[in-house]
Design a protein that fits this description.
The complex is a heterodimer of chains A (501) and B (470). Chain A is an alpha+beta fold and 501 residues long. Chain A contains 19 helices and 17 strands. The longest helix of chain B has 34 residues. Classes of the chains: A alpha+beta (501), B mainly alpha (470). Chains A and B meet through helix 1, helix 2 and helix 3 of A and helix 9, helix 12, helix 13 and helix 14 of B. Chain A: It comes from Nocardioides acrostichi.
């Protein structure tokens, strides 16, 4: 009977080898793909219990999001120190979005886009992780330092809040023209990320549902996700195209007049007027046309430049593209395709189908301040180790040379005169030369108009470019909604915060 | 392999040493595993050494020393490796169950310690009462009948209860009991007794078809009977694992007894037929198969009409989470897997002790099987060979079925993991298996008495010599 027993031994050996091979496959080769399964509660629990890195702003590297020890079932609680002011930038971190990559279509803010760094899983933190493992310490996430200037952010938030009141809607973006750093980004209404980061999941679901169902859409980051007609602020693009094309210089006379009948149209629908502002007759100085925001002049100039060139110019500034990767999704600002002459005329004054995000208009302004170079906007300044050592710093990147440096300087002069002598006077800062442009976009017959304001300062050595967009200001009477009156003071406060820290 | 055929050839004059000192040394290591794991659980989960460490360790040490002393006196030549491996597995299982208790606020570990005490008691009792395992041949038909009664009991109206879809439990006065675990020991004894008597008839008669010796039609009776019993378990008790275990066990023993591969061909064909028929006839078999093939499709679907692979996938996540060296006791979440303390205890070990711990546990099972088959090889008579080989096969098959099911190598079937899983009937039955294996190896390794007048033994060794020469 020994021969079959030996055969059985071999058979058992095969059984055990198969078990060991399978368990090795499972625990060695398959392990990381199992850990990355979004349905794996262990991975979610672990990343949720971990001490996550902080999100820092400003010279003092003040944390605006940090993990503090918690006494409940998880070891750490995410805490947002200025919740409403920074909510649109930080986003929130809770049990439902703790797993990286669990939702690629959802809104992803710094907590999500920088999750690998904050959780410590990023390859750039490999050495730190290794040291932690060897010294038997609990791994700690890396820190993310933002480009946000806390003073500018505060000025933007408070300024916008004052104008909008408790139920208004609007957004502000401030950029550093030379680099593309986002110095401030505010969108109202805001929300409290602390409530969404709670460990009480039913509470989180309740708050999340009520935010989702809120008709004012507090979860929307209007600075990058809302496109609206930019109105008169788009005249900067039209002017840039005209100067860049060689049609005019800043000292030339441009078409003026109280009304302008768009080509191929008759009657009121095709008639452009200036709502009573002085735009002369015949030909007027370029500066006057911009100072008084003459619709007739720019509609006419847009047609002279032509739809194709105007669109090319808009695209050179960043329209019809995606360029912002630190937060997603980003709405694409659009300039209409194949516009005919009357449509081109309307587009030239920022109406018809032209749509822009506040970030896009800030980029247009920043490009003029930066000798015509459009910089890629970014929010993440530095990746840091848990010990706050710099691991990687974002390098500024030029997207395009939208206009020549000479065009840029001519536009700067024109825009300075708009602040000094024109509609944008609200943004004047004593002792500093400021360039700016107002905009009030009609939305239709019933709804109140959108108010815009763009500016940069100091004009000779720009440090900050701002775009303010007021979508809905219920506290302001409809007749008083104008870019200069509403947006000017906000822009001024932000510029002052940056220039005089 | 000289050791294995040495004693069968008295001319070589090889005499096994007792090796009780080695066993004691290994037992100290096994105790270190059990008590160390218990302490590690306390440190890992509660950050303190358990307050009852000395009481617990003392109890465990007492059981182990008692078992060792009895082996030393009544089975002095018994295999020195088996008892330490069994003790280490049992100790590790207790620690893991204790760890799950801390997570779930249950009290399985203390009950398991009581069951271990009962198990060691039966182990000692078996060794003391059963001085020669051949006595068991007298109970061939009795234990066969008892096994069938035990297997049928869960289907009886008052005592039988159904848990997790399998009718393999009986409940008397609040105590639940898995009779299948005891039945498997009974079946091995019955098969061994039957086959040692009828092996010649089964082995010699038959026809040769395509290089395979097929058995005679009338000899197919017992194999068909066993096949029907296995199918019955599958159909009426919905227990795929036990059905596979019993039929596989029977085939292995038939093959060892008759040395004819033809039985394996016939048996495997029957099993495949039965399994295929089961697949098409029974929804629960199909479901098991389906979630084995596509576990992630059926994970947390929230659809009650679909089969659920939650347990399987949660265990899979646990294994992945453990990785190479594991999370350490207290570092994982093994309690996320339903029934982690019984059927899925291996996933707890995989998660917290890692691949290293899993391979160590599998190697320990491998050692038990190897030691059992070695005892079968060196045993000088047919009944001992069949008994040891059968018991070894039971453990090998059971470990393969449960570990393969938990790790996704084969479809999942509900079986306990020997010595590790929480469960009284399983633990007690396995301790008896250990005692029987020690008894067989003790007689096999014992020096041959000078005057041997036992005809059967003489025949046996003569046969052996011829075979080795061949």
């Amino acid at each position: 009977m020994n021969k079959p027993i030996r055969t059985i031994s071999l058979f058992c050996l095969v059984l055990f080898l198969a078990l060991m091979a399978n368990v090795t496959y499972l625990q060695y080769w398959k392990a990381s793909s199992l850990d990355n399964d979004p349905r794996n509660r262990r991975a979610v629990d672990a990343s949720f219990s971990q001490q996550r890195g902080a999100i820092l702003v400003g010279q003092n590297q003040t944390p605006i999001a940090k993990s503090v020890p918690s006494k409940d079932q998880y070891l750490f609680q995410r805490e947002y120190t200025r919740p409403l002011m920074y909510a649109q930038i930080t986003g929130w971190y809770n049990y439902f979005n703790a797993q990286s990559g669990s939702c690629s279509t959802c809104q992803r803010r710094i907590e999500q886009t920088q999750n690998d760094v904050l959780s410590g899983d990023d390859d750039r933190l490999f050495v730190t992780r290794l040291v932690d493992m060897l010294s038997n310490k609990e791994p700690v996430g890396g820190n993310v330092s933002l480009t946000i200037d806390p003073k500018a952010q505060e000025a933007a938030y408070n300024g916008l809040k004052n104008v909008l009141g408790p139920s208004g809607e609007g957004a502000v973006v401030a950029l550093e023209p030379r680099t593309g750093k986002v110095l401030a980004m505010v969108s109202l209404p805001s929300f409290d990320p602390n409530k969404l980061a709670s460990h009480d999941l039913s509470q989180v679901t309740k708050v999340g549902d009520s935010l989702d169902n809120d008709s004012s859409q507090p979860l929307l980051n209007r600075a990058i996700q809302t496109t609206l007609p930019p109105g008169s602020t788009f005249k900067i693009v039209t002017a840039a195209a005209a100067i860049q094309d060689g049609l005019y210089t800043k000292d030339d006379l441009v078409p003026g007049g109280a009304t302008y009948q768009l080509p191929q149209t008759t009657g009121d629908t095709g008639l452009v007027d200036n709502e009573g502002r002085d735009c002369g007759t015949g030909r007027i100085p370029f500066a006057q046309a911009l100072e008084n925001s003459c619709n007739t002049s720019f509609a006419h100039m847009a047609i002279e430049v032509g739809a194709d060139k105007l669109r090319e110019q808009a695209d050179a500034f960043g329209f019809d593209q995606q360029y912002f990767t630190d937060m997603t999704p980003q709405a694409t600002s659009v300039f209409p395709d194949d516009a005919n002459e009357p449509q081109t005329g309307q587009s030239g004054i920022g109406q018809y189908d032209v749509r822009a995000t506040p970030l896009q208009m800030a980029m247009v302004t920043a490009a003029i301040a930066n000798d015509g170079k459009v910089m890629r906007p970014y929010v993440v300044d530095e990746i840091q180790s848990p010990e706050f050592e710099q691991i990687e710093k974002t390098q500024p990147e030029t997207i395009s040379q939208a206009i020549s440096s000479s065009t840029a300087s001519q536009l700067t002069d024109l825009l300075v005169s708009v602040v000094d002598d024109g509609t944008a006077y609200e943004a004047k800062i004593p002792g500093v030369s400021v360039a700016g442009k107002t905009g009030t976009a009609q939305t239709g017959t019933d709804a109140p108009p959108y108010a815009w304001f763009v500016s940069f300062a100091p004009a000779d050595d720009p440090e900050v470019a701002v775009a303010v967009m007021i979508q809905k200001a219920p506290n302001v009477p409809r007749g008083e909604i104008a870019g200069g009156a509403l947006g000017g003071p906000i822009a001024k406060a932000i510029m002052e915060a940056v220039i005089n820290p | 392999m000289s050791v294995s055929f040495g004693p069968s050839n008295p001319l070589l004059g090889f005499v096994h040493r007792r090796r009780r000192g080695a066993e004691l040394f290994l037992l100290v290591l096994a105790l270190a595993v059990g008590v160390g794991a218990y302490a590690a659980v306390g440190v890992g989960v509660e950050d303190t050494v358990p307050a009852d460490l000395f009481g617990y360790g003392g109890w465990l040490a007492g059981l182990i020393v008692a078992a060792h002393l009895v082996v030393r006196f009544v089975a002095p030549y018994a295999d020195p490796v088996l008892l330490p491996v069994v003790a280490a597995l049992n100790g590790l299982g207790l620690a893991v169950i204790h760890r799950l208790d801390l997570a779930d606020d249950t009290h399985f570990a203390s009950r398991q310690l009581i069951w271990m005490t009962v198990g060691v008691g039966l182990f000692i009792g078996t060794l003391l009462l059963l001085r020669d395992h051949r006595v068991l041949t007298r109970f061939t038909y009795t234990s066969g009948l008892a096994a069938i009664v035990l297997l049928l009991m869960p289907m009886m109206p008052i005592v039988g209860t159904s848990k997790r879809g399998a009718k393999i439990w009986i409940e008397v006065g609040g105590l639940s009991f898995q009779p299948g675990e005891v039945a498997k020991v009974m079946l091995v004894i019955a098969f061994a007794g039957y086959l040692v008597l009828h092996r010649d008839a089964l082995a010699l008669a038959g026809r040769r078809v395509l290089f395979v010796d097929l058995p005679r039609g009338r000899d197919l009776g017992p194999i068909l009977g066993m096949w029907l019993v296995s199918l019955g378990i599958l159909v009426f008790q919905r227990d795929l694992g036990s059905s596979l275990l019993f039929f596989g066990l029977f085939l292995v023993m038939l093959y060892v007894a008759t040395e004819r591969a033809g039985w394996l061909v016939v048996g495997s064909t029957l099993f495949v037929l039965g399994a295929t028929a089961g697949y098409f006839a029974f929804g629960h078999v199909r479901e098991r198969f389906e979630i084995w093939l596509h576990p992630f499709t059926y994970y947390k679907t929230g659809d009650a009409s679909l089969p659920s692979s939650d347990q399987l996938v949660d265990a899979r996540f646990g294994f992945g989470w453990g990785g190479l060296i594991g999370r350490g006791f207290g570092g994982g979440d093994p309690q996320l897997v339903p029934f982690a303390e019984s059927d899925f205890i291996l996933s707890s070990i995989g998660e917290e002790l890692g691949l290293t711990g899993m391979v160590a546990v599998l190697l320990m099972y491998g050692l038990i099987v190897e030691r059992a088959l070695r005892a079968a090889l060196i045993s000088r008579e047919g009944f001992g060979k069949l008994l040891a080989a059968g018991l070894g096969a039971v453990i090998a098959l059971q470990v393969f079925v449960v570990a393969g099911g938990v790790t996704g190598l084969i479809p999942l079937t509900g079986l306990t993991t020997p010595f590790l899983s929480y469960g009284g009937s399983s633990l007690v039955a396995n301790w008896v298996i250990a005692a029987l294996l020690l008894r067989v190896s003790d007689l096999a390794r014992r020096p041959i008495p000078d005057l041997s007048s036992d005809d059967e033994d003489a025949d046996e060794s003569a046969t052996q010599v011829i075979k080795v020469a061949r």
